[in-house]
UniProtKB/TrEMBL annotation:
Coiled coil, from the record: none
Protein name stated in the entry: Fenitrothion hydrolase
Domain of life from the UniProt record: Bacteria
Record field: transmembrane: 39-58, 70-90, 120-138, 150-171, 255-276, 297-315, 351-371, 383-408
UniProtKB keywords: Membrane, Transmembrane, Transmembrane helix
Upper taxonomic lineage: Bacteria, Bacillati, Actinomycetota, Actinomycetes, Micrococcales
Length: 409
């Protein structure tokens, strides 16, 4: 609340411009734009993909198989952390996008080939992210080889079918991992200025550059709600309730996960309705305003990701190398990492607790700033400060809820 009062008093005009940022040295910018760097990144991603598929098809159905770590740690969590650091990296290294482009080149047809126009915005991405979140947090036997074969095979099939029908636009809007990487990548300190030059910028500039679009609200709701549920599901009281409830644990967990998704979407929409009415705007304006304001939830989602997945990424991300060295489970040491012992220096309890608390609070502050900037940009400035009060209240509730979930016994 103190932050809101200070921001409302001192930040009365829009301040974030697409001309902002500290220009990177030309050699660094040239490296980031170089085809060689992108080619190397794609090649490494292709090698890892093939390596993982070999383990998926021919590897053992046991804890020695590296596929669960690649899917749930490197792909899901590692992609989030790397995107928040470097930007939307999955667009560059997405192996299915590369496969689609390669097939089109072999067929000697235009890369823009599409049978139908694409019109669903981010809705398929929201559905895909929600499904993967359910798989990770609720589905039983989600590390078994048969389950992962079905999961990975289904994803490849849907992606290739979608791109065959709608062209590469499918990856731009409907691919769940590209959406995950692109939205969290807005928090990256690396970005492009209005003239296309690389700059160092604040996370607010990336978030402020995103405009409302169809399906953005449910996508952000899944991102934030899923991470919040992950923290909530680790609560001892909840685990005890699930185990003793006469209701099926899968059904109970699924219903609760969907409730978390819904709570985020409904609360941000209700806050938008009240904000619009306090600003003197008609009710119908709330439907566009909620999409305008939805990007301000991305910093909060990013803070939740860091808070809940830091230990998993830092420790299990290292352990994955130990498993990858023997993809077939034969006792081989192809990468020379069979004896790797993960370093636990970055998962000491005090350090982890500090990182968790700071990430949630910083995410909240960035969300408040992003919402304020968007509100005074799209609403009448005389009413913007009063109109955004409901949004600030909701964000404070998100933060308090996140801290409560995180540190609950």
């Amino acid at each position: 609340m103190i932050s809101f009062v200070a921001i409302g008093t001192l930040w009365r005009e829009p301040r974030l411009r697409d001309t902002d940022g500290v220009l990177l040295p030309r050699p660094v910018a040239a490296l980031l734009d170089s085809r060689s760097l992108r080619a190397v990144a794609r090649a490494l991603a292709a090698v890892l993909t093939v390596w993982t598929l070999v383990a998926l098809v021919l590897g053992p159905d046991s804890a020695r198989n590296p596929v669960p770590h690649v899917v749930y740690v490197w792909l899901w969590v590692g992609l989030a952390f790397s995107s928040m650091l470097l930007g939307p990296v999955w667009r560059v290294i997405n192996p299915v996008r590369a496969l689609h482009a390669g097939l089109l080149r072999l067929a000697r047809v235009s890369p823009d080939l599409a049978a139908l126009p694409y019109r669903w915005g981010l809705w398929p991405a929201a559905l895909g992210l929600g499904t993967f979140t359910w798989v990770e947090l609720v589905a039983e036997n989600n590390t078994s080889l048969g389950f992962l074969q079905l999961l990975v095979g289904g994803f490849f099939a849907v992606s290739l079918l979608g791109s065959a029908v709608f062209g590469r636009t499918w990856f731009d809007h409907a691919d769940p991992f590209e959406a995950w990487s692109r939205l969290l990548g807005l928090l990256s300190p690396l970005g492009r200025r209005h003239d296309g030059r690389w700059v160092l910028r604040t996370p607010l500039h990336g978030v402020n550059g995103l405009r409302g679009q169809r399906g953005l609200v449910p996508t952000v709701a899944v991102m934030l709600g899923g991470t919040a549920y992950d923290g909530f599901s680790a609560n001892l009281s909840w685990s005890t309730f699930v185990q003793t409830s006469p209701v099926s644990s899968s059904l109970l967990k699924t219903a609760t996960l969907l409730t978390f998704f819904g709570l985020v979407a409904v609360t941000i929409w209700l806050a938008s309705v009240v904000s619009v009415r306090l600003s003197g705007e008609p009710f119908a304006r709330s439907f566009t305003f909620v999409s305008d304001i939805a990007p301000s939830l991305i910093p909060i989602a990013g803070g939740y990701v860091v808070a809940h997945y830091w230990s998993l990424w830092v420790y299990q991300g290292q352990y994955a190398w130990r498993l990858l060295t023997d993809p077939l489970g034969t006792g081989a040491d192809l990468l020379g990492t069979a004896g790797l012992v993960p370093n636990d220096a970055l998962i000491q309890p005090t350090l982890v607790a500090t990182i968790q608390a700071v990430s949630i609070v910083v995410g909240h502050l960035l969300g408040v700033l992003a919402a304020h900037e968007r509100a005074i940009t799209v609403l009448d400035r005389r009413a913007a400060v009063v109109g955004q009060v409901p949004l600030m209240v909701v964000m404070i509730l998100y933060t308090l809820g996140g801290l409560t979930i995180l540190f609950a016994p």
